[in-house]
Amino acid sequence: MLKGFVSAFRTPDLRRKLLFTLGIIVVYRMGVAIPTPGVDYENVQLCAATASSNSAFAILNLFSGGALLQLSIFALGIMPYITASIIVQLLRVLIPRFETLYKEGPEGQAKLTQYTRYITLGFAALQSASYVTLARNDAFFPGCAYPIVPNDSWYMIAVMILTMTTGTVIIMWLGERITERGVGNGMSLLIFTSIAASFPGAASTIWNSSDGVRNTILVLLLVLAIIAVVVFVEQSQRRIPVQYAKRMVGRRMLGGSSTYIPMKINMAGIIPVIFASSLLMLPTVIVQFSGNDPAEWVLWMQTHVADPGSPLNIALFTLLIIFFAYFYTAITFNPTDVADNMKKYGGFVPGIRPGKPTADFLGYVLSRITAAGSLYLAIVALLPTVVFVALGLSTSIPFGGASVLILVGVGLDTVKRIQSQLEQRHYEGFLK
Which of 267, 318, 358, 359 could lock onto 378 through a cystine, CB 3.0 to 4.6 A? Predict the structure, then answer.
């Protein structure tokens, strides 16, 4: 591993890419620490120290690297772009024009990227206006006596909204520059940086808790076990053998080769966990805005649904993860298209007739794999929460399964990209 890093930095082209990527990450972290104009930074620090933060924004604050609750210029983080990307993928099913653009190759996908940018800008404007309103109403730190936004004139509110929206555009630009000129996927690396930046504070919280030594050791063992399971499952795949028939093209004999279709156990990635977490935030938001005298159904929702450690919350979280795993997998992998492409080029699965029987077989295999993958996602996402509740720790500590899934997934992808570039230059890779 260390020899791989040394080889990477000895290669001039790869060294420039790595240093460029690190430079962009440093710029991103600097922007997280710059407060938005109109925000009283001292009062924000006082509220963070004296009042408990709203648990409804824990995940969003985690993905922004702590910038949301500080109301920095990068408070929105990369989430508007992720939301826009997911929406564009969903629209491929609903709008035939989007699917046509996707199949046109680089030019059509560049057009879809442009649409994603426009949607990101709209989401950023809406979310920045919402967050400024929440900050004015003391929703980020309930019960804090210090005003976060002292000047609530329309001019200052407009400046804050414009600044946060521009910050999201800058983050999007930084991520695209990493993808174009750096190493790895830029957006994924920025999320990786945001989550990793919150780990030292979380470790300090666990260490300073009651039975801190025991809790720290148990949480460390849990995280290592989850990392091992995630690495094993993310690298696992079901290989469907494909045989291509021989055919004459002019005077040349083509085909006759054997290959396979790699089908990952977890084809949906982290998307089902993000969707399920976002939906389960709605009951918490309803409880937070119910006022000082909530209705009985709001109190019941607060006890049985909004509490992350309640059995009903865990059951809903599991069902939502399974549902979105099937839903997103069905969108990203179409067995009918795969079967048609195989038939077009003379490919077939041994023992299965081309066409509809092949599509049915791929759909059957996909449903079984997705069942195992969705259960794996649910267990990995819920296990840290159950352990934290058993240890008496806060469930908002960012050592959850979703965080580990993102960190390990992005780390594996980045290492593979560096390794492929090293192998192109006849260097040894990271993995032997």
Answer: 318
